[in-house]
Write a structure and sequence with these properties.
By secondary structure, this protein is mainly alpha-helical. The protein is built from two helices and no strands.
Length: about 45
């Protein structure tokens, strides 16, 4: 999956838009047979 761009000015909260990637990943997981890793808590750590 593509990563969302960072905001131009660095060092501020919410500059990395990982929450958008999470939202998309959850949408994919809801529909697709191929699952995308979301968070460690949600998807479990690979051993």
């Amino acid at each position: 999956m593509g990563k969302p761009k960072k905001r131009t000015s660095p060092r501020k909260t919410g500059t990395r838009r990982s929450h958008l990637a999470l939202k998309l990943a959850r949408a994919v997981n809801a529909k697709s047979p191929i699952k995308v890793r979301t968070t460690v808590r949600e998807s479990g750590k690979k051993v």
